[in-house]
Amino acid sequence: MNYRQIPNLITTARLILAVVFFVILSWYQFEGRGHSTLLTLGFFICLVAVSTDYLDGYLARKWNVESGFGRVVDPFVDKILVLGSFIFFAGKNFIISEAADPHPYVVRTITGITPAMVVVILGRELLVTSLRGLAEKSGVSFGADKWGKLKMVMQSITILVIVAFVYFLGVVQKHFEGALVSYRFWAEWFRDIMIWLTLIITVISAWGYLSRSIQLMRSPSR
């Protein structure tokens, strides 16, 4: 095998891992179908997928073998993994019923993710993709800035935090019921902080791209 194909193979492997991760999330159901070991497997599959995010690009630049395939598929895999994960987290397999819930018409998820949060993340990706297309059509490079890179890191970590939270909550609930209240309070607190930090950074990163686009459109040379 030509070593120059390794970056593209890594990118392809990441896409396959994302699909396997989604299959696991599709099968698992917090209050019903699926064993907690599914989440253990899902956690490590997702960990490999997100931790190798920069490896393919790094190797392609190091070996000077950057290709159209990598430029298109690598960010595609990033978006599929992030958006797909958050969509599943807001879906029916993670909905919980609270017996003492004072708001019976409010749907809650054990992941802490709501459809509105998914809309914010999806809206940011659609906006930035559109702005990048307009900029590059004008011959201007529109690569990711520091906020865009931080956004991807935070989203990846938050996905792992959510999977770990759901897994350990199920284990504590099954084997250490007496510690459930204390664990759940602190774990939900940490989970929610990570979620809201991710959303805030996602919005900030969108504003950075929007500002750059406004400056580009106001430029007299354009």
Write a compact overview of the structure shown:
This protein is an all-alpha fold. The chain has a single domain (3-218), classed as Four Helix Bundle (Hemerythrin (Met), subunit A) (Up-down Bundle). It is built from 7 helices and 2 strands, in the order ααααββααα.
Could you walk me through the main structural features you see in this protein, from its secondary elements to its overall organization?
- The chain has 222 residues and is an all-alpha fold.
- The chain has one domain (3-218): Four Helix Bundle (Hemerythrin (Met), subunit A) (Up-down Bundle), CATH 1.20.120.
- 72% of the residues lie in helices and 2% in strands.
- It is built from seven helices and two strands.
- Strands 1-2 form a two-stranded antiparallel ribbon.
- Helix 1 (6-27) packs parallel to helix 4 (68-89).
- The longest helix is centred in the last third of the chain and has 39 residues, at 180-218.
- The model has no long low-confidence stretch (mean pLDDT 84).
